[in-house]
Amino acid sequence: MSRTFLFFILAGLSAASLGLGCLFGPMDIPASKVFDILGSVIGVSGGDFGEPTLSVVVLDIRLSRVCLSWLVGAALAVSGAVFQGILQNPLADPFTIGVSTGAAFGASLAIFFGLAGMPVWFGMGFLPLAAMLGAFGALLAVISLGKIAGTLRRETLVLAGIVVATFLSALIALLKSLDEESVTGIVFWVMGSFQGRSWDHILFAAPYLLAGAVVIWLYSREIDILSMGDAQARMLGVNADQVRLVLLVAASLITGAAVSVAGVIGFVGLVVPHLVRMVLGAEHRPLLVFSALLGGIVLLWSDVLARTILSGGEELPVGVITALVGGPFFCLLLRRKSKDMGL
Q1: How far is the C-alpha of 84 from the C-alpha of 288, rounded, in Å?
Q2: Could you tell me the residue ranges of all domains in the chain?
Q3: What's the pLDDT score for residue 137?
Q4: Cα angle, residue 268 at apex, residues 239 and 101 outer, rounded to 5°
Q5: With contact defined as beta carbons under 8 Å apart, do 254 and 296 qualify?
Q6: Using one digit for the tens of pLDDT, what is the confidence trace for 133-144?
Q7: b/e map 39-54, b = 16+ CB within 10 Å
Q8: What whole-number percentage of the chain has pLDDT above 70?
Q9: What's the sign of the alpha-carbon dihedral 231, 76, 120, 203?
Q10: 287-341 pLDDT per residue, tens
Q11: Angle, nearest 10°, between helix axes 99-112 and 240-262?
Q12: How many alpha carbons fall within 13 Å on the CB side of residue 233?
């Protein structure tokens, strides 16, 4: 299957998923009415829907949610592909260097001190900003700990990330033990959810996602070179430490933006790049593009499943769905690879 054909398939599935995802919700709206409302946005229907409430539900609640879930899935998959490339570690993902845990700690602090709902961005609460600040704080800590004689090496980065993530996880547990009233909010946020998200959350995350994606794309060729090792990179005239730092910051930027508006969502950044790499190989420009498309689709439908799987109308955290599906699936991938290697 050619890359061009596969691209159009995934792009078409992404577009279709954005529309089909708006069909699901606690309010029963006929599919024809949903598509009429969506069609009015692009000018293919009249826009007279009888009840204004229907338009609000479809466009302001459901469409914003599916768009945000697609963007977050794409961001996590791209950052996972970058981390796996620059760290030369197939098990690397947005959690490896502690950025996701840093965002969780920042959000936990906001919940603990009762600041989560304080309006700071067009009426949106302080929690996303606190998560973003926590992500950057964790990144700075990892970079500081990961430097040896002024050099940023991938081995020390992984170890520093584990140390920072473990320490911040302990602090989150401490916050939960100190205030029982905040436990529910912290736990639900840490497990990831798109409940109550709106277009404001997309506007908050979009600049960070765009800036990080542009930098990653500009340095995508260098990721291929770094994957061959630092010695080969130096022979080809690439400053491995400098490029690794730039890509580390860019991938952490989109990770922090995604986690700040959605909470901690695992396995998307780990599994999706593996799937794409199995089909297309390890060249990073196509890997990044196809990981973004597939990651967006996977998380969008994971969120649909999270809000429809319970018959009573309750929602599961989407991070639970990705963990329940992604964990066993990744184990199958590892088992298959072990068999192929004769282990």
Answers
A1: 12
A2: 3-340
A3: 93
A4: 70
A5: no
A6: 999 999 999 988
A7: ebeeeeeeeebeeeeb
A8: 92
A9: positive
A10: 999 999 999 999 999 999 998 888 777 888 898 899 888 778 777 766 766 565 5
A11: 40
A12: 18
Query: Are 259 and 99 in contact, with CB atoms under 8 Å apart?
Result: yes
Cα(101)–Cα(99) distance, integer angstroms: 5
Phi, psi of 74 (to 5 degrees): -65, -40
Chain segment 30-50, per-residue pLDDT in tens: 888 888 888 887 766 655 555
Q: Is 168 exposed, middle or buried (0-12, 13-18, 19+ CB in 10 A)?
A: buried
Contact call for residues 137 and 129 (beta carbons, < 8 A): no
CA 38/CA 46 separation, integer angstroms = 11
Q: Are 72 and 254 in contact (CB under 8 A)?
A: no
Amino acid at 189: W
Q: Could you give the CA distance from residue 147 to residue 190 in angstroms, rounded to a whole number?
A: 29
- Tell me which CATH homologous superfamily contains domain 3-340: ABC transporter involved in vitamin B12 uptake, BtuC (1.10.3470.10)
Give the total residue count for the chain: 343
Q: Please, are residues 299 and 322 in contact by the beta-carbon 8 Å criterion?
A: yes
Q: Give the gyration radius of the chain's Cα atoms.
A: 21
Measured distance CA(85)–CA(276) in Å, rounded? 13
User: Six-digit token pair at 98?
Assistant: 């502690």
Distance in angstroms (rounded) separating the CA atoms of residues 128 and 206: 13
Structural tokens at position 17: 């998923």
Check if the beta carbon of residue 28 is closer than 8 Å to that of residue 68: no
Nearest to 229 by CA among 219, 240, 221, 217: 240
